[in-house]
Design goal:
Elements (H helix, E strand, L loop, with lengths): L3 E3 L5 E3 L13 H4 L8 E2 L5 E2 L3 E4 L2 E4 L7 E2 L12 E6 L5 E8 L10 E9 L3 E10 L3 E2 L3 E2 L2 E2 L11 E4 L3 E5 L5 E7 L11 E2 L9 E5 L5 E6 L5 E7 L3 E5 L21 E6 L14 E2 L5 E11 L1
Antiparallel strand pairs: 1-2, 3-13, 4-7, 5-6, 8-9, 9-10, 10-11, 11-25, 12-24, 14-23, 15-18, 15-20, 16-17, 16-19, 19-22, 20-21, 21-25, 22-23
The structure holds beta-D-galactopyranose.
């Protein structure tokens, strides 16, 4: 809901978009918009096409809209109340949330147990997802938090770096075609830090293919002086910049302008279950799924 970090003026900026109260997230007015503010999304973050996928030579049909499922389908794990499994204080305070999602939920096989650990370090928030299954399944979970490093206005012009030489080519439904596109000499070339720009398109909604180096992305707002660095063990970063939050009354909604926020969704490739040459998203009994994300803050 909130993440307050020190800015260059010596006070705090709330750098994420949230609803004013926790209760707001349970209301139809919020849920009907599907913005997934700060939500854990899954079982499969992003889009799966063809109404399902093959697993062990069997077609698994999943809930879908015209053949495409987004963020795990309707009434998925972002819409249920998680349990608090553990928490701790001290120098690195943390809380671990957990859920069990039953086999058949939105069509997915396997009863899964999923944990989300949120941990604060000196200057980062780390989110670690781990999961187990009792039958072969696919899994791709991430966090859908929206950032604005000034706490108001627009993200346009923020200095953006993305450590990706390629993006996934997507069709008009935003489903990957299976091809990669080289970003160099295109508007998606953020391989050196440049101002976030929206010429010629209505915002980013793009799966970037991450390079191996540790730093995956960074964002800097010159007014607040806040810089955020993104680290993850995942192969892709879906960057999403909505034009606005429509009529949804997010906290301080009156202070935001066009392109109010940016999501850095650290995850596997969208639609990987339908593309054998994409990194595998299969999770087998006995294995542990693990997605590590860190958003680190400094003042420049
Ligand atoms: C993004 C997705 C967008 C949009 C958004 C939620 O992850 O790529 O197309 O659905 O979530 O509003």
């Amino acid at each position: 809901m909130r993440l307050e970090v020190p800015n260059r003026h010596g006070n705090l900026t709330d750098v994420v978009i949230g609803m004013p109260t926790a209760e707001d997230y349970t209301k139809a007015t919020y849920q009907n918009y599907n913005f997934y503010l700060g939500a854990t999304i899954g079982r499969y973050a992003g889009r799966i096409s063809k109404g399902g996928f093959h697993l062990n030579n069997q077609f698994i049909s999943i809930t879908n809209h015209e053949g495409v499922q987004l963020h795990g389908g309707v009434n998925s794990i972002d819409k249920i109340l998680w349990d608090v499994e553990d928490q701790g204080g001290g120098a690195h305070p943390f809380v671990i949330f957990s859920i069990e999602d039953k086999a058949g939920s939105n069509g997915y096989p396997g009863n899964i147990k999923l944990k989300a650990k949120y941990e604060l370090t000196e200057n980062a928030i780390k989110i670690t997802y781990t999961a187990k299954t009792d039958a072969p399944t696919v899994l791709n979970v991430t966090n859908h938090v929206y950032f604005n490093l000034k706490g108001r206005g627009s993200t346009e012009g923020n200095e953006l770096y993305i450590n990706a030489n390629h993006v996934l080519q997507v069709d008009e439904r935003l489903v990957p075609t299976g091809k990669l596109i080289d970003v160099h000499h295109t508007p998606l070339d953020y391989t050196t830090e440049i101002p976030l720009h929206f010429e010629g398109h209505y915002g980013l909604d793009t799966p970037f293919v991450l390079e191996a180096e540790k730093l995956k992305a960074s964002l800097y707002n010159a007014e607040s002086g806040i810089q955020m660095k993104v680290f993850t063990n995942q192969p892709a970063l879906v960057v999403f910049t909505p034009q606005d939050f429509s009529e949804l009354k997010v906290r301080n909604h009156e202070t935001f302008n066009r392109f109010p926020a940016i999501c850095f969704e650290c995850q596997n490739f969208p639609d990987a279950p339908n593309h054998p040459h994409f990194p595998s998203s299969v999770l087998l009994p006995g294995e542990t799924y693990r997605n590590e994300i860190a958003y680190q803050f400094d003042v420049k």
